[in-house]
């Protein structure tokens, strides 16, 4: 009998596993449906798991700090803030919750027809993973920033745009350009190409945008990790007043773009035009991103922030005091 189970194809095993784990049928009910014994069904389920056809995940409940959100939104000058209890850097369930909430905000905000702009970054990936199109709206997805030189489905703009398009059943408009060119002259020349300029213009007309905020700290900077800038470069940028980047463009504490060759070599949406997009959503958390969150929010580059309680406490001292007096239940 075991030999018979071993010879069953993946499709048949997956069908039985789906009945058991998704449709919630017990082994007796499945046995009746497929005309087999309960012991055979049990072995088929076990074999499906052994072959990696079944993935089991446990989503621990998270607590949303709605009591802090309005305070933080007023402090940062944002239309909306979402705060999930915990530390997203070390808790996957917190990152997952932020992504799910972000995807819900996208669904609620996109008109029909509508356009979603996608930048890059792992935090944006949390939202993209959970995107959905409940009303089957006519949508477009636009890649707002050039592609990284290394392939990373979790953070690369082109891969995130493709995934978002698939999730939403949307038309896809890709930016056929790298994230950063070798020289300012090369970047200026590429921006003038019609295929590139058209997508950049369309990016600025998005109805909703997922915007990445990058830390300047070398150990946290995605640009350092991808090899676009060095640790020495980050020190130079800090000396010029930079606190991080918005969609690859470095800004200072007042939100003013820092005049630097690095930003001039980036191919992406004009961040000043982000201010004209009705809904610009960012997921950002961690001590290294406090300054860039403050700068981007108070300068109007983002309208909506999703973060964790650890970061919220650092952003707003009164929230930190409230946390000590009224710990979450």
UniProtKB/TrEMBL annotation:
Q: Where does the Sugar-binding domain lie?
A: 63-316
Membrane-spanning parts: none
Q: What are the record keywords, sorted? A: DNA-binding, Transcription, Transcription regulation
Molecular-function GO terms, alphabetical: carbohydrate binding; DNA binding
Which Gene3D superfamilies does the UniProt entry name for this protein?
3.40.50.1360, Winged helix-like DNA-binding domain superfamily/Winged helix DNA-binding domain
Pfam families, alphabetized: Sugar-bind
Q: Which InterPro entries does this chain map to?
A: NagB/RpiA_transferase-like, SorC_transcr_regulators, Sugar-bd_dom_put, WH-like_DNA-bd_sf, WH_DNA-bd_sf
Give the record's family classification.
Answer: Belongs to the SorC transcriptional regulatory family.
Q: What is this protein called?
A: LsrR/DeoR-like transcription factor
């Amino acid at each position: 009998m075991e030999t018979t189970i071993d010879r069953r194809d993946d499709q048949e095993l997956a069908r039985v596993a789906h009945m058991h784990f998704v449709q919630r049928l017990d082994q007796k009910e499945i046995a009746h449906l497929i005309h087999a014994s309960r012991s055979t069904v049990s072995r088929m389920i076990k074999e499906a798991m052994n072959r990696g056809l079944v993935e089991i995940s446990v989503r621990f409940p998270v607590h949303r700090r709605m009591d802090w959100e309005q305070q933080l939104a007023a402090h940062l000058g944002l239309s909306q803030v979402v705060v999930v209890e915990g530390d997203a850097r070390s808790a996957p369930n917190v990152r997952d919750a932020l992504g799910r909430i972000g995807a819900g905000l996208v669904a609620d905000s996109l008109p029909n027809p509508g356009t979603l702009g996608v930048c890059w970054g792992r935090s944006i990936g949390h939202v993209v993973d959970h995107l959905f199109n409940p009303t089957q709206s006519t949508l477009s997805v636009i890649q707002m920033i050039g592609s990284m030189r290394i392939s990373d489905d979790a953070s690369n703009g082109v891969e995130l745009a493709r995934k978002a398009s698939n999730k939403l059943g949307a038309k896809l408009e890709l930016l056929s350009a790298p994230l950063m060119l070798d020289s300012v002259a090369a970047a200026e020349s590429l921006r003038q190409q019609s295929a590139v300029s058209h997508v950049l213009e369309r990016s600025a007309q998005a109805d909703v945008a997922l915007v990445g905020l990058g830390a300047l700290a070398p150990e946290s900077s995605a640009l350092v990790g991808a090899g676009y800038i060095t640790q020495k470069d980050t020190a130079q940028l800090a000396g010029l007043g930079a606190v991080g980047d918005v969609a690859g463009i470095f800004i200072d504490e007042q939100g003013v773009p820092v005049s630097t060759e690095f930003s001039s070599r980036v191919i992406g949406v004009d961040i000043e035009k982000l201010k004209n997009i009705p809904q610009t959503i960012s997921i950002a958390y961690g001590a290294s991103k406090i300054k860039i969150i403050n700068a981007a929010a108070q300068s109007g580059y983002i309208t909506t922030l999703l973060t964790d309680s650890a970061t919220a406490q650092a952003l707003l001292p009164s929230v930190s005091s409230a946390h000590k007096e009224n710990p979450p239940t």
